[in-house]
Write a structure and sequence with these properties.
Elements lengths: L1 E6 L3 H13 L5 E6 L2 H10 L4 E5 L7 H10 L7 E6 L4 H7 L5 E6 H17 L17 E7 L3 H17 L10 H18 L4 H9 L4 H8 L3 H4 L3 E7 L3 E7 L7 H5 L3 H7 L3 H9 L1 E5 L5 E7 L18 E3 L4 E3 L7 E14 L2 E6 L5 E2 L1 H6 L6 E14 H10 L2 H19 L1
Parallel strand pairs: 1-2, 1-3, 3-4, 4-5
Antiparallel strand pairs: 6-7, 7-8, 8-10, 9-10, 11-16, 12-16, 13-14, 13-15, 13-16
Helix pairs in contact: 1-5, 2-3, 5-6, 6-7, 7-13
Length: 423
């Protein structure tokens, strides 16, 4: 069960959203409604919703101020965003929501026909929407396989969800954010356009010269029931060190070698094969099957590296530790808490290593720190690592100034205790 903050004062729209949420099985998403900017900003800090729906045309809602709240502390505010608007130029919406977890943008006249579909896609990806609720997820492999219809609208949602998840789990460099979703969108659209719908580059170019867009051509093609029944298979496996993606269509394939061997200059000049060019640039091991209707590629992850530091600790300088260096020893007093910036740490008790912590675990030594107990284990740096050391005085003052962090940390500890009781 997840929470959706609906930032809107439009009763008609809110009732429609409520009806869609109630139509889902197992109460997948529970909406709550925020009719003013200040209510929304407080809720984003204290309630930490999984999804935020923002009515961008609501005169009672100051969208830039809400986005300012989200950008101020991206480590804390990692909710997925659905933007509802009347903007005909989608690029303006993407510019407005830059550096946020935008999942989908819907024009108001599309909400009634498409919002239910957005919720169903989010329901399939519920474990990937809010990273702080799934700490420890990467102790296992995550594999998903979906069948997409020939609708470009779905493509953008799937691509955005995957990229936001990888970024929020600290597996992507900040400067590569945006490139992963573009690769996925380009290759998934290739599978729909040129694969299932059999639209040639020349036909697409002529169609667009006549003043139409590619989405209209795809819809026109699907008047043929045989084409409409075709699906795109989209699967991925996410491991701690890499993500592997496979995209397969039901078309006849194409001469992929012609484009994989083209130079970057040639490809840019022709604006054809752009998806392949980008995948070759940002990804590893791009491979097509013989027919050319299935591609596989790999995205290598950062190794145990945090992209962001919580705003309450940003004035503290990180300390580097060498391989084998002891952070603290079993039996020491617990006057400090450690925020893990990067690296891996061996946890040793009674001379035996019993676990390893990484940046996915966020903190070192929080239980003894909060309970005033002596350290229950020795922590040793495994390779080069970085930590931010936080004294009790700094921690208490930070929570006083940012009380919503107390709620977040309480949730985090509750999740750890829940996992410990299940293991």
């Amino acid at each position: 069960m997840g929470s959706i903050a609906v930032i809107s004062s439009d009763d008609q729209l809110n009732n429609m959203i409520l009806d869609y949420c109630e139509s889902l099985e197992d109460d997948a998403f529970i909406p709550f409604f925020l009719s003013s900017t200040e209510k929304a900003r407080l809720s984003l800090d204290f309630d930490l919703p999984q999804i935020a729906i923002i009515n961008c045309i609501d005169k009672k809602i100051d969208t830039p101020r809400i986005l300012e709240t989200l950008r101020k502390d991206p480590w804390l505010h990692s909710c997925g965003i659905i933007a509802l608007h009347n903007e005909t130029d989608e690029s303006k919406i993407h510019d407005m929501f830059k550096d946020t977890n935008l999942i989908a943008s819907l024009q108001m006249d599309m909400v009634e026909s498409n919002f239910g579909r957005v919720l169903r896609i989010l329901q399939k990806h519920s474990q990937m929407i809010f990273h702080t609720e799934i700490q420890g997820l990467f102790s296992r492999q995550v594999s998903c396989n979906y069948e997409l219809s020939n609708d470009p609208f779905d493509v953008h949602i799937y691509a955005n969800i995957v990229e936001n998840f990888l970024f929020n789990m600290n597996l992507l460099e900040p400067n590569t954010r945006g490139s992963i979703s573009i690769i996925l969108i380009e290759l998934l659209m290739n599978a729909i356009e040129h694969g299932n719908c059999d639209i040639s580059f020349e036909e697409k170019s002529e169609w667009m010269k006549s003043g139409h867009n590619i989405f209209e051509l795809i819809m026109d093609r699907q008047q043929n029931l045989a084409i409409a029944k075709k699906r795109v298979s989209f699967s991925y496996t996410i491991n701690p060190d890499k993500s592997t993606f496979t995209i397969r269509d039901e078309g006849n394939g194409f001469d992929h070698e012609k484009y994989t061997q083209m130079s970057q200059v040639e490809n840019i000049r022709e604006r054809h094969g752009r998806g392949i060019l980008m995948a070759n640039f940002y990804a590893e091991k791009l491979h097509y099957n013989t027919a050319g209707n299935e591609c596989t590629f790999v995205i290598n992850h950062l190794e145990h590296e945090n992209n962001t530091v919580p705003i309450i600790f940003q004035e503290k300088e990180a300390t580097s530790y060498k391989d084998g260096e002891i952070i603290f020893s079993e039996g020491d007093s617990s006057d400090d808490l450690y925020y893990i910036v990067s690296g891996k740490f061996n946890i040793i008790s009674n001379g035996r290593q019993f676990t390893k912590l990484t940046s996915d675990d966020i903190f070192l030594g929080e239980m003894s720190f909060l309970l005033n107990h002596k350290r229950s284990a020795t922590v040793v740096s495994d390779g080069t690592t970085k930590l931010i050391k936080i004294s009790k005085r700094v921690f208490v003052n930070a929570i006083k100034q940012n009380p919503h962090y107390g709620i977040f940390l309480a949730r985090l500890l509750a999740q750890r205790l829940s996992r410990a009781s299940q293991s």
